[in-house]
Amino acid sequence: MKDDLEENVSHGAYESMWIYAIWSINIESDGEYDFSQYTSWDTRIILDGKIIHSWDGRATIKLSKGTYILELEHINTFWFLDILVNYGAAVDEYTIEELSEIIEVQDKEIWYVWRSESYSEGHISELDITKSSQEVSLMLFADSPVNWVINNPYKTRIREIVMYSWEYGSTVTGRTIEDVPVYYLKQSYDIPVIYDIVPDCDDTGGYFYCDSDIDEVDDLNDVVEEIFWNKLTGFTWEYLDEVYDEDKMFVPVLILDEAWYQKIADNQQKLRDLEKKSEEEKDFNNIFD
Q1: What is the 8-class DSSP label of residue 149?
Q2: 69 has which bridge partners?
């Protein structure tokens, strides 16, 4: 097998390099491998002396079985530093339409998990799966790459896992999911990411603002129904008192039954009424002569 490395070019070191790291990695079999990085500033990955990737994102290259030297060079101009490098067998990405053809229509729970990022070493976020009498489909969404770890003490039957993040590099592992299919959604602006469904509104300084994505719930369910032919039945998000550790989350925290969907609809209407009232009561055109 011919490596992609043979077609690359040698590199010179960054003039203002701030961090340098080097590892020895073992590739267990011939094939395509994904290398992804998430950093606070400019970073490049070098494999056996050849640049394979620079800046955020992902590179997919062909490699032969064997041992390689992996180097990382990083320039940082921010006040904080965050570097994550993941590599592994290349994964396929699917559109919503493609997933709708692959995933079987079944009576099952659909549990959605969101977090912005993991602040732990290795960007690990543990998920404690609760008990369910039905099979469960998990949707694991994030802004930055997260290495999800599934804890499944009740041996809840997980049918499939759908992954999505705005930055490449999220992974999922767990002792009870070895045979569970994992599908990666292609990055798309058509896929809404829900941060919170409980509105927290403020009307100060002449500006009405609500910290909530409650209006996006319907849009997300449109995606969910296209894939699973059902709507969300469970929800977990990062900014909750019930999330008992910043890197460990219950799944689900919230059961989305019909009563909750009615509450969401009522709150959506309340938000529209508040926004309309806020606009009607503010006329800034007559402040100045």
Answers
A1: E
A2: 24
Task: Compute, in degrees rounded to 10, the torsion defined by CA atoms 165, 237, 203, 284.
Answer: 20
| Bridge partners, 85 (sequence order) | 37
Domain over 4-90 is classified CATH 3.40.50.360: no
pLDDT in tens, 103-121: 988 889 999 999 888 878 7
Here the tokens at position 6 are 């043979």
State how beta strands 57-63 and 31-39 pair: antiparallel
Report whether 3 contacts 45 (CB < 8 A): no
Length of the chain: 289
Strand 124-129 relative to strand 147-151: parallel, antiparallel, unpaired? Answer: parallel
Domain with CATH 2.60.120.260 in the chain: 4-90
Which has the closest alpha carbon to 243: 137, 127, 148, 152?
127
d(CA 160, CA 259): 27
pTM of the complete model: 0.82
DSSP state of 117: -
CA dihedral (155, 132, 230, 110) positive or negative: negative
Q: Nearest-CA neighbor of 238 among 120, 122, 125?
A: 125
What is the maximum alpha-carbon separation in the chain? 78
Question: Hey, what amino acid is at 171?
Answer: T
Summarised one tens digit per residue, pLDDT across range 164-184 is 988 888 999 998 898 999 999
Do strands 248-251 and 182-185 pair parallel, antiparallel, or not at all (unpaired)? Answer: unpaired
